[in-house]
Amino acid sequence: MIDIHCHILPGIDDGASNLDEALEMARIAQSEGIKKIVNTSHFHPEFKYKMGEELLDEVNRFNVALKANNIDIEVLLGNEIYYTDEIIEELQELNFYTLNNSKYLLIEFSPMNTPKKLADVVYEVKLKGYTPVLAHVERYNDIIDNPNIVYDCIKEGAIIQVNASSILGRHGKEIKKVSDILLDNNMVHIVASDAHGSQRRRPQLKEAYDFVKSKYSKETAENLFKNNQSLIIENEDIIIPMASMYEEKRGLFSKLFKR
Description:
With about 260 residues, the chain is of the alpha/beta class. It has a single domain (about 1-240), classed as TIM Barrel (Alpha-Beta Barrel), CATH 3.20.20.140. About 40% of the residues lie in helices and about 15% in strands. The protein is built from 11 helices and 7 strands. Strand 2 (about 35-45), helix 2 and strand 3 form a beta-alpha-beta unit. Pfam families: CpsB_CapC. This is protein-tyrosine-phosphatase. InterPro entries: Caps_polysacc_synth_CpsB/CapC, Pol/histidinol_Pase-like. Belongs to the metallo-dependent hydrolases superfamily. CpsB/CapC family.
């Protein structure tokens, strides 16, 4: 498997705090069957995280440390861009990394203050030459209330990423429910760990892979955990099944009451 959303580099953002924790995260990932990780350090206008050449140097140093510790994982370069109106306007001038220098741009939003017309943001990012990968969409309040916002974003060309822990219900019933809705309606293209440490929010994918394989199919699991990730880091077009809009199922009583 390939994890394309992970905060594994030590001492960069709110991910691994030091080299020992980063190496332990890598060992956990290796035990899960993860072969490659795209480090997606936060790119946030209010925090001065390492970026550009400094971030590239950190990735190179960490890959050396992985080999020295006999950990068979390769870490690739990326950022997780925090959305603001200004960042989108200045996107082509900023010193960030796409996912392994591909056309795919990982972008996150405020859970409490997601843009009202999220599909318009997707359109704007596409105009600038990038394919937006919307990070952990199941966590955004507006999408919890209306999952079909994701459907509209897919129609505009977005790639949708959901966290493995959300699929397994580790962030509450609401987030689990919306994750299920998105999976049921082919509105998920990538599952990632969004790991931040070795004790909590760990780089684990296998249990979620097994869940998706059991509930849907092995082909679906392979696409969501491996094949689409491979295509992204190779800068190829990913496998996008036909999405369908979510229709809330109503009981007989509610249907009669509505009439």
